[in-house]
Amino acid sequence: MIDPEGVAIRHPTSRQIRRVPLTSEGPNEVWCCDGHDKLCKYGFAIWGVRDKFSRKWLGLWVLPNNRLSSVVAYLWLSLVHDLGGIPKQTSSDCGSENGMIYGLASALKDAFCGMDDGKPAHIFLRSVHHIPIERGWLDLRKDLGHNLPHFWDAGKGIYRADDPNHQ
């Protein structure tokens, strides 16, 4: 009775994610960058870049730690070098490891792309809005199988660090 507007705003259905069509102008318009932490407890921290238009994985790396800004920036720059260019825009989540990519994307776009297309070089998105790469992790798990934890746990006690054959 006191604040019906406030009650309406707090209603569970008021915060539903609005679904819109996922569109892209073409290849290399947006590169989506993200880390996958589901296998970190097994020593497999994954970081990847996926093209929004084609949904093609441009790069996937298994690292000891995918939350180091210098490491993910190096991987992003190596991808730029290997592909011979930068995208119109990159996107990532708001993790602190992505700040250097933001700076590099902005600097490279300013230095080498003379025209201003009105889009920032990098955007930060919440995971629920970062669909191409988040959906890619599901596809990757389906392709690789969900059984890595099973095989990892089945091998406990078998590996001996002092055995040269095991090393």
Quick structural summary:
This protein has 167 residues and is an alpha/beta fold. It has a domain at 34-144. Helix content is 34%, strand content 17%.
Write structural notes for this entry.
By secondary structure, this protein is of the alpha/beta class. 34% of the residues lie in helices and 17% in strands. It has a domain at 34-144. It has 5 helices and 5 strands; from the N terminus they run αβββαβαβαα. The chain has a 5-stranded mixed beta sheet with strand order 3-2-1-4-5, with helices on both faces. Strand 2 and strand 3 form a beta hairpin. Helix 2 runs parallel beside helix 3.
Write the layout of secondary structure elements.
Blueprint: H1 4-10, E1 30-36, E2 45-51, E3 57-63, H2 69-83, E4 89-92, H3 99-112, E5 122-124, H4 131-144, H5 148-154
Parallel strand pairs: 1-4, 4-5
Antiparallel strand pairs: 1-2, 2-3
Helix pairs in contact: 2-3
Q: Share of helix among residues?
A: 25-40%
Report the biggest beta sheet as strand number plus sense, adding barrel if it closes: 5 strands, mixed
What series of H and E elements makes up the topology?
Answer: HEEEHEHEHH
Number of distinct beta strands: 5
Mean of residue pLDDT values: 89
The unreliable regions are: none
The spatial strand order of the largest sheet comes to 3-2-1-4-5
Distance between the termini: 70 Å
> Over the alpha carbons, how many angstroms does the gyration radius reach?
20 Å
The class by helix and strand makeup works out as: alpha/beta
Number of helices: 5
Regarding quaternary structure, what we see is single chain
Fraction of residues in β-strands:
15-25%
Shape: globular
